[in-house]
Design goal:
The complex is a heterodimer of chains A (about 110) and B (about 110). Chain A is mainly beta. Chain A has strands spanning about 5, 10-15, 20-25, 30-35, 45-50, 55-60, 60-65, 70-75, 85-90, 100, 105-110. In chain A, the strands form two sheets. In chain A, strands 2, 4, 5, 9, 10 and 11 form a six-stranded mixed beta sheet that branches. In chain A, a hairpin with a 6-residue loop joins strand 4 and strand 5. Chain B has strands at about 5, 10-15, 20-25, 30-40, 40-50, 55, 65-70, 75-80, 85-95, 100-105, 105-110. In chain B, strands 2, 4, 5, 6, 9, 10 and 11 form a seven-stranded mixed beta sheet that branches. The radius of gyration of chain B is 13 Å and the shape is globular. The N and C termini of chain B lie far apart (about 35 Å). The chains are: A mainly beta (about 110), B mainly beta (about 110). The interface between A and B is medium-sized, with 23 and 23 residues.
């Protein structure tokens, strides 16, 4: 069974701090996605990483895919209250099924 | 382009009843997936449909079923509701199996 483990589960930080969220698996994925979900809404895609070692930047967010394509990380620089939300990593399995990590709930205090 | 639309947004049902949830995918998207989201279990995969065929099913009891119509719209049904079925049910569509998912805002089901 393919699983994605995210850490930490919960993060409460002050505005301006940096943070990193991790997504790990014992399985190889052809690609990993990161989503962000806000209360009362469905998850929204932030990025897809495909190539081992790939790094993608989205403004203050930096996403990295591990060389072995088993893990990924999300780094936020100078977090802002607008970054508050649930961050989910996800991977597509071979059976037309995308599985999700349990998520990291981020709260950024002004 | 309109996003994924789920109806209704909120639903309150009593134990033992059944419920049907509806999902209209983004125009042109033929793959529709359903997920159950709870605080304790996160997003759990229910099933995936493509061109009216269920291609994969998650580890849920037979009380959970779904279908997809020729226009790609999808419904899921839960029969004999239990308290533990209270959750946010999310529908997602994608144009093909290898593309990321586009989610609706979900149906919040409360079973009393």
């Amino acid at each position: 069974t393919q699983l994605l483990e995210q850490s930490p589960q919960f993060l409460s930080i002050q505005e301006g701090e940096n943070l990193t969220v991790y997504c790990n698996s014992s399985s190889v994925f052809s690609s990993l996605q990161w989503y962000r979900q806000e209360p009362g809404e469905g998850p929204v895609l932030l990025v897809t990483v495909v190539t081992g070692g790939e790094v993608k930047k989205l403004k203050r967010l930096t996403f990295q895919f591990g060389d072995a394509r088993k893990d990924s990380s999300l780094h936020i620089t100078a977090a802002q209250p607008g970054d508050t939300g649930l961050y989910l990593c996800a991977g597509l399995t071979g059976g037309f099924k995308t599985i999700f990590g349990a998520g990291t709930r981020l709260f950024v205090k002004a | 382009k309109a996003g994924v639309t789920q109806t209704p947004r909120y639903l309150i049902k009593t134990r033992g009843q059944q419920v049907t949830l509806s999902c209209s995918p983004i125009s042109g998207h033929r793959s529709v997936s359903w997920y159950q989201q709870t605080p304790g279990q996160g997003l759990q995969f229910l099933f995936e449909y493509f061109s009216e065929t269920q291609r994969n099913k998650g580890n849920f009891p037979g009380r959970f079923s779904g279908r997809q119509f020729s226009n790609s719209r999808s419904e899921m049904n839960v029969s004999t509701l239990e308290l533990g079925d209270s959750a946010l049910y999310l529908c997602a569509s994608s144009p093909d199996p290898n593309s990321p998912l586009h989610f609706g805002n979900g149906t919040r089901l409360t079973v009393t």
